[in-house]
Amino acid sequence: MPHNSANSQGATRRGILFGGAAVSATALLTACTSNEPSGKEAPATNNQPVADDKPGKKVTIGFAGPQADHGWLNAINENARERAKKYPDVTLDITEGSNDTAAQIGQIQTLINKKVDVLVILPTDGKALTQVGLAAMKAGIPVVNLDRVFASPQAFRCWIGGDNYGMGLNAGRYIGEKLKDKPNAKVIELAGLDSLELTKLRTQGFDDALKNYPNIKKVARQAADFTVESGQAKMAQLLQAQPQFDALWNHDDDQGVGALRAIAQAGRKDFLMVGGAGAKSAMDAIKADNGVLKATVLYPPTMSASAIDLARALGQGKGIGGMSELEIPASVTLYSAVVTKENVDDYLPQSFT
Question: What CATH number belongs to 164-298?
Answer without folding.
Answer: 3.40.50.2300
